[in-house]
Specification:
about 450 residues, mainly alpha, hpI Integrase, Chain A, three-stranded antiparallel beta sheet, 19 helices, 6 strands, elongated
């Protein structure tokens, strides 16, 4: 059952205990909200989980506002004032700005209030004359505000994807507030930004992180500020402009050599102690090159085993694919086909939790001496598949299509058919006991 979903009266409910820090503003103890989805129509709770994720966004924003950590209530009041102003054919501006307008514009606002009983309505008067202040949004409430601003795009993500999307932004803000304190976003200064960058610069110089890590955190901060400011029509100073660090970027994961895969990973008993789902998903990855998240989120309708060419279909089923080019069909051969036959319904243990799957496999590889170097990870199997593709006569477009990469060309039709893909994959598929050349680095090591 998906996290925080419960059954009640034949309907899926979102159920969550109120966190201790919000107990004072929400005395319910346990929150139970109907998703409106009947269990008989959604046995696995997939659709209900998506609705529950949106309910959670609103609930957390509500808690933050009531506890004084957000600006939800103020934001709603401001949105109402703007809507009323538009209805009067006025633009909403704060009172201080209204006072600076030309006399003709001020008189136009007063004339709009002179109709009927509008002047007697405090809300309408405030909308016309700027009586609702702009909300004060603290850094501690920025993530909640950003979630609201991005609600439309988040609706297409799975709960696991939302959690991952959110975690990096929370970490970036935690560093910022540790360095400069919890300030209102419209009071951020260039000095605050410089102190933040100095913090990251020191960590890069000390070798704790790469410059790319610092820049990724900076991107999270500026992206949130920009979206929230746009939503609230705030004119924020670009205090973080031009502060990206120069330096080493991310270190690409090296590919596993074919020799290592055959003689180490596929050696008799090498993966015997691994969890059965982890082992099968890893074997599927070897001869498909699919991303770990694509494999562990496969469901029965996308695992086509009873076919002339058994294959998997990568689709955005209740989640967002990494790119539009990720949508593809990949033939199954050899060990990958055998592994997929063991799990014709997919991998429920790790569904929508790709990080946990990768962490578990990487830990196993580390503990059992199955990493070719300390930089090799599970994802290195995908790089190995790409390297083996390069050794074939497949067109660049075919290689990109199999990998789910941007072909840099307009997409017409359904791409390359399964028969053509199968011929290419059969040429590069690996199997236990194959004779493959040892990598040059290993030969030199042994010779030395």
């Amino acid at each position: 059952m998906p996290e925080r979903l419960g059954r009640r009266g034949g309907v899926w409910y979102y159920i969550r205990r109120v966190p201790p820090e919000f107990a004072a503003v929400d005395p319910r103890g346990i929150v139970k909200v109907s998703t409106g989805v009947k269990i008989r129509d959604d046995r696995a709770g997939v659709k209900a989980a998506r609705i529950a994720a949106r309910l959670e966004i609103d609930l957390e924003a509500s808690w933050a506002a009531k506890a004084g950590q957000g600006a939800r209530a103020a934001a709603l009041a401001l949105e109402d004032a703007r809507a009323r102003a538009r209805a009067l054919e006025l633009s909403y501006r704060p009172a201080d700005d209204v006072a600076k307008e030309a006399l003709s514009e001020i008189l136009r606002r007063l004339d709009a209030l002179a109709v009927g009983d509008r002047r007697e309505d405090p809300a309408t008067t405030a909308a016309a004359l700027g009586g609702v202040p702009l909300p004060e949004i603290l850094l501690s409430g920025l993530v909640a505000e950003f979630e609201i601003a991005k609600k439309a795009s988040l609706a297409r993500k799975s709960p696991g994807q939302i959690k991952k999307w959110k975690s990096g932004k929370i970490r970036a803000l935690a560093v910022l507030t540790d360095v400069i304190g919890d300030k209102a976003i419209d009071r951020l200064s260039r000095d605050d930004a410089l102190r933040y960058i100095e913090h990251w610069t020191d960590r890069v110089v000390d070798g704790e992180v790469l410059a790319e890590t610092a820049n990724r955190n900076l991107t999270h901060i500026t992206g949130m500020l920009s979206a929230v400011a746009r939503r609230h029509r705030m004119a924020l100073d670009p205090v973080f402009a031009g502060l990206r660090l120069e330096g080493e970027g991310s270190r690409p994961r090296p590919p596993f050599s074919a020799w290592w895969i055959v003689n180490r990973l596929l050696a008799p008993g090498a993966l015997e102690a691994m969890n059965t789902e982890e082992r099968a998903a890893l074997l599927v990855m070897i001869n498909t090159g699919a991303r770990p998240s694509e494999i562990i989120n496969l469901r029965a309708p996308r695992i086509i085993l009873e076919s002339e060419i058994p294959h998997i279909q990568v689709r955005p089923d209740d989640r967002v694919l990494k790119t539009e080019f990720s949508w593809r069909d990949i033939p199954l051969v050899g060990i990958s086909l055998e592994a997929m036959r063991q799990f014709p319904d997919g991998f429920p243990r790790y569904r929508d939790n790709g990080d946990a799957f990768s962490a578990a496999v990487n830990k196993f590889l580390e503990e059992h001496g199955l990493r070719e170097t300390e930089r090799h990870t599970l994802y290195s199997l995908r790089h190995s598949f790409k390297d083996r593709l390069r050794e074939t006569d497949a067109t660049d477009e075919m290689k990109d299509e199999l990998m789910g990469h941007d072909t840099r060309k307009p997409k017409y039709g359904d791409g390359h058919g399964l028969h053509l893909k199968l011929k290419i994959i059969e040429r590069i598929a690996l199997a236990p006991g194959m004779v493959v050349p040892a990598p040059l680095a290993l030969i030199r090591k042994v010779a030395g």
